[in-house]
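Thread: Newbie trying to understand structure tokens

Hi all, I'm a second-year student working on a class project, and my supervisor (Dr. K.) asked me to get a predicted structure for one chain before our next meeting. I've only ever worked with sequences, so writing a 3D structure as a token string is new to me. If someone could post the tokens and maybe explain what I'm looking at, I'd be very grateful. Here's the chain:
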Amino acid sequence: MNKILTLIVIGIFLLLTISVGAEFRYYNANRSVTVEVVADDQELLDLKPMQPYAFIHSNGELIIDFTAKNINYNEGLGMGISPDSRYIFDCVFAVSNDLWENKTIVVDLDVSTESQGIVLIYSPSSQYNQGPSNATDSLTVEISPGESACIGFVVDATGKTLGEYTAEITIHGYPKS
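---
Reply by user tm_fold:
Sure, no problem. This is what the structure looks like when written as tokens:
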């Protein structure tokens, strides 16, 4: 009987020793993320059209359209830009920081490569790309609370064939660290 009792005590001791030395290797948890997709004029970075070439579409997107398809188009005022020409449009739209209380935000804007260099952007609020002479396809601006940054366009059709060119601008905003 002592042998059995001794074996049981040794077994319990080994079981406790092994369980105390066990490593925690796996954890499973479910969390939720909520994202609200809203119109450009209701988002955390407010995009505001400043020229007739820019408008908020019925689906909530900011559209910049230099064609006769523009909803602000007036008959007889032209249907696009001239070949082998270069146009500068100051403050086509503005990005404002009205919703981030007491935080400066950094906004990165990137023009897609599909534009084939026909569309370049600049902003007086940018540290490096303040004017049309140094417009680029990538731009960063810092916007203080309650302020806005105007985004200008250089549309350059030099050497381009007749036709329609499309580009997308990707905008990322985040609080300055």
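A couple of things are worth pointing out once you decode it. The chain has one domain: 40-175. The longest helix spans residues 2-20. Feel free to ask follow-ups in this thread.
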